[in-house]
Amino acid sequence: MSTKIIFKKEKNIGRIILNNPEKLNAFNFSMIKELYQILEKIQKSQLKAVVVTGAGKAFCAGGDISWESDIGRMRASEAKEQIKYVQKVFSKIEQLPQAVIALINGAAVGGGNELAMACDIRVALPEAKFIHPENSLGTIAPLGGTKRLPRLVGLGRAKYMLFTGEAIDSKKALEWGLVDFLVPNEKISDFMESMLSRIERNPIKAIGMTKKSVNSHYFKDLTDKFEADSYVMLSRSQENKQILENFLRKKS
Asked: Parallel, antiparallel, or unpaired for β 168-169 and 129-131?
């Protein structure tokens, strides 16, 4: 049984822990399918809130480079299906009746930040940082990043992050609206307990219908064919293949 994602329940609160710390919690397609199964269980449960975080020193380093390299080699139709599936899984977080809180305990890179942005509330620790390196890899952010990011930080700042790949620290992320709260490490337990207990007091139907109403138009276009198709097309470019090969060579 896979332990790449840990799911725990305590009363009305669930916890999803990305558990691939040796790769900074980078995900592959198998992990995404595992996440979908967990989200299915949560959707049918009476949980009122779910916390998503990462094991070790990172929140999530995005897609595993080996998997991204495979996408560039597989049939285009299969590659598009995989990317569209990941888009669907991230969008499912927004469709859950539960409040979903990302606790960002380190780097949120590419798809890792796209995962965090799919959550309802983002809480960052001081060591959190946010990076979109896709353009530097010769690709595009394919998992809703070109939609969610400008809605949170504004068009210019989103384009700046996407075009430059510059790392944004936790203070700037709070200032820009990429995260909702920045909490010192020594206060995070009390902060999370307080927020979750306030959510937990409320009826699940009220939480779910409020979330559905807020999200109904705001997140309409997040399973984006153009994003998926563009990513797959760019993953076949010589630049992308060379960059990924160089990266994998350095890691080996």
From this structure: antiparallel
